[in-house]
Write a structure and sequence with these properties.
Elements lengths: L12 H6 L1 H30 L12 H16 L11 H6 L5 H14 L3 H4 L4 H16 L3 E3 L10 E3 L6 H17 L2 H18 L8 H21 L4
Antiparallel strand pairs: 1-2
Length: 235
């Protein structure tokens, strides 16, 4: 049974142990990690489900972000790991799931499975790896799109990412490569953001970079540098 004694066990001792500046940076890095992890998952699963518009944006994206934020707060309130979105949701989409009923059914099944988690733990990672590889394949499939949106169109798909453009191609490669190597969606997205901004600056096109990308890139640089600064005792 879960340990309900941890419910609401808030502890602000980090401010006393790390200092206000270090604690704020630590909290910011956690927020950054959760947010971009969620965005990467939402866009990937949304694309697989066919919910993205012609610009590649998810309409009313504030709704899933709001739900994810509330869930993350709830997870912290009960002293559990962050209750955030996971890329494994692509498995449900692959089976035809398109509505909120999928989340409700999965949530109920998770509650029932909680009492059988020791049995599930017997299954080795090698057995579940195949399923995750298939999920990865389904996610990669969103990188292609039809040249025409016409019904019954038989044209060959083309790359959804213009790898011929260094500013888009290289960051995309870094994102795709770094995510599995570091086991972090956030690290991959952060490397892509920083690479895109640096390439635009070198190309003399810094003015084409949206100010939000500047802020995000600086935040990611802080995110990557902070562990080093903390290890050196500088923060």
């Amino acid at each position: 049974m879960p340990d309900f004694s941890l419910f609401g066990a808030f502890d602000f001792g980090a401010f006393g142990k790390l200092g206000i500046t270090a604690a704020v940076l630590w909290i910011f890095s956690l927020m950054l990690s959760d947010f971009f992890d969620t965005m990467g998952t939402v866009v990937g699963v949304g694309g697989q489900a066919g919910y993205l518009d012609k610009k590649g944006d998810l309409p009313q994206v504030n709704r899933p972000l709001l739900v994810d934020s509330v869930a993350a707060i709830a997870g912290g309130a009960v002293s559990a790991s962050s209750a955030t979105t996971y890329i494994e949701s692509g498995a449900g989409v692959a089976q035809g799931g398109r509505t909120g009923w999928v989340a409700i059914v999965v949530g109920v099944l998770f509650l029932a499975a909680m009492f059988f988690s020791p049995i599930a733990g017997i299954v080795p990672g090698q057995a579940t790896a195949a399923a995750l590889i298939i999920v990865g394949y389904l996610m990669m499939a969103t990188l292609t799109k039809a040249e025409s949106e016409a019904e019954h169109d038989t044209t060959e798909p083309k790359a959804g990412i213009n790898f011929g453009n260094l500013a888009f191609g290289l960051p995309a490669v870094l994102i795709i490569t770094i995510m599995p190597l570091t086991y972090s969606i956030t690290n991959g997205i952060g490397a892509g953001f920083i690479a895109y901004v640096l390439i635009r600056v070198v190309q003399g096109k810094a003015r084409e970079v949206n100010w939000l990308l500047w802020v995000s890139s600086l935040a990611f640089m802080l995110y990557f540098v902070f562990p080093y600064l903390q290890a050196k005792g500088w923060v």
